[in-house]
Amino acid sequence: MKFLAERMLGRLAKWLRILGYDTVLEGRPDMEANLEELEKEDEPRVILTRRRKKPGPSQAYLLHSDDPMEQLKEVVVTFRLTVDEAGIFSRCSVCNRALVAVSRAEVVGQVPDYVLAGHGTFHRCPRCGRVYWPGSHLDRMKKWLAGVLEDDAENSLTSSK
Ligand SMILES: [Zn+2]
User: Which domain does 112 fall in, by range?
Assistant: First the structure.
């Protein structure tokens, strides 16, 4: 499932990307494809909006909350998004690109030493160069999601150890 978020929903878009969901922010100047091109994609994007709009060719979902985490909860529950280790941090939260795996040697000098020492797995965004690694935010995120998904949690979340 892919999303197209209204411009004002930047924080929601960021969280969806962290979960691994391809989410384009409407009207971003650095966006690769324009809206017409997006409509040609095989899988229509679900439009996330806070405003009522005329029905378009894609499915639109009207969010009820103004709070980004509540919005994320709405989207996760409504679309029954699955969340797993492979999805979390598979996508750059800033530019929506799929991350590529890089070795520890490749990130020397780009991450703090204690991070380098404590992790064997790193991912880098091919566009902006940000380096990602599994950290405490991953555990926090999984706990939060487990609460949101409740009954779904056992099926959707894989254990970390
Ligand atoms: Zn990036």
Answer: 100-132
